Amino acid sequence: MAVLVYLEAEDSKLKKSAAELASFASALANGEKVYALTVNAANATECGAFGVDEVHVLETTEQLLSAAQTAQLIAEASKEVGAKTVVIGSSADAKYFGALVAAQLEAAYIPNVVGLPETQDGTQLFKRSVFTNKGFAFTKATTDTVVVGLAKNAFGSTPNEKPIQVVTKAATLADTTVTSEGAEKASGKATIADADIVVSAGRGLKGPENWGMVEELADVLGAATACSKPVSDMGWRPHGEHVGQTGKPVATNLYIAIGISGAIQHLAGINASKVKVVINNDPEAPFFKAADYGIVGDAFEVVPKLIEKLKDFKAQNA
Ligand SMILES: Cc1cc2nc3c(=O)[nH]c(=O)nc-3n(C[C@H](O)[C@H](O)[C@H](O)COP(=O)(O)OP(=O)(O)OC[C@H]3O[C@@H](n4cnc5c(N)ncnc54)[C@H](O)[C@@H]3O)c2cc1C
Predict the structure, then answer these.
(1) Residue nearest to atom 36 of ligand 1 (CA)
(2) For the CA of 298, the nearest atom of ligand 1
(3) Is 42 in the same domain as 80?
(4) Quick count: other Cβ atoms within 10 Å of Cβ 313?
(5) How far is the CA of 154 from the centre of ligand 1 (A)?
(6) pTM for this model (two decimals)
(7) Tens of pLDDT, residues 85-96
(8) Count of alpha carbons within 13 Å of 306, Cβ hemisphere only?
(9) What separation in Å is there between the alpha carbon of 135 and the centre of ligand 1?
(10) Does residue 61 sit within a domain?
(11) Could you read off the pLDDT of 4-31 as tens digits, one per residue?
């Protein structure tokens, strides 16, 4: 059965997650046709490099679609191409529209999926992370159609170049109870949701005036900046940067934590990250137990040295 994958776009470009989502959809399709759907993505054909056969590019002048409108576009496309499996990502937006797509298609919604399904006695079981990545559940759909939400960085991307067909058409949007008056990015830099690397800092930095070195380290690495909850509560950093159980989840390739103790509520939001580096002057800080690499030292000495070394390394390898 055909698979439809919805690829989110931002600033008229596919988001980074597109390669991973297309690769997953292609593996899931197992030789059947893979359709992609995207809105206002000028580079939509690039998903052909990851196994998509046909991409539908919907065009609209609306800056931001509501979750209900996005869900309706995905559900319609799924019916049009006859897909019984719909793959979406796990962005904050996807978490809203995923359930709405499933409701419109009378489908099961299985979010946080971490890999291809296993087949047991003829039934497909999707492994998904639960309890803020503390455990796994094996979930089966009891419906004909299933909406699968792939967890970020769970599958990776596999190049699989195909001659891609492109269908471009105007998006017909459903009436909605909410409209956006405008969209403003929190910063012009990498966003926490999309970044491969996140540099995060906590109360150990003493005050907002010391964030220059955090931003500089993030700049050198092409990373997004983040912070612990008290830091945003105190107004040292914007709320959009707060990560953890009650903030944004981070599933990045590299998470660098500077002056963050590693409280359980912080770890709950970042433990899906692949490599965790901790810089803390207290060797007993709980974060070291969760770290892949740790530096016991004063952030005000360690971070500038790290920036210097990284700059030298980049200059030598330019
Ligand atoms: C319901 C609930 C939900 C919560 N949700 C979240 C959440 O989503 N995200 C979150 O982050 N927190 C959350 N918290 C708060 C959490 O429990 C911790 O209080 C918080 O994470 C601590 O932040 P911190 O590590 O920045 O500060 P601190 O606990 O004050 O730790 C500062 C660290 O910096 C180190 N340090 C100090 N000086 C230096 C230096 N010069 N160089 C290097 N290291 C230094 C210290 O050794 C210490 O380990 C939540 C709490 C509750 C009750």
Answers:
(1) 204
(2) 42
(3) yes
(4) 11
(5) 27
(6) 0.80
(7) 999 999 989 999
(8) 23
(9) 24
(10) yes
(11) 999 999 989 999 999 999 999 999 999 9
- 248 CA distance to ligand 1 middle (Å): 15
- State whether 115 and 218 are in the same domain: no
Q: What residue ranges line ligand 1, CB within 6 angstroms? A: 202-204, 228-231, 244-247, 259-261, 263, 265-266, 269, 279-282, 285, 298-300
pLDDT tens-digit series, residues 195-229: 899 999 999 999 999 999 999 999 999 999 999 99
| Domain shared by 216 and 142, yes or no | no
CATH assignment at residue 290: 3.40.50.1220
Helix (H, G, I), strand (E, B) or coil at 302: helix
Cα 231 to middle of ligand 1, angstroms: 8
Residue 188 in any domain: the answer is: no
Q: In whole angstroms, give the CA distance from residue 87 to residue 1.
A: 13
Q: For 184-213, b where at least 16 C-beta lie within 10 A, e where not — what string?
A: eeeeeebbbbebebbbbbbbbbeeeebbeb
Number of C-beta neighbours around residue 65 at 10 A = 23
Residue closest by Cα to atom 37 of ligand 1: 204
Indicate which residue's Cα is closest to atom 50 of ligand 1: 265
**Ligand 1 centre from 259 Cα, in Å?**
8
Enumerate the H helices of the chain as residue ranges. 17-29, 67-81, 92-105, 212-221, 229-233, 264-270, 287-290, 299-316
Protein residue with its CA nearest to atom 41 in ligand 1: 298
Q: How far is the CA of 268 from the centre of ligand 1 (A)?
A: 13
CA 155 to CA 50: how far, in whole Å?
A: 13
| Cα separation, 134 vs 293, whole angstroms | 21
60 plus 150 within the same structural domain: yes
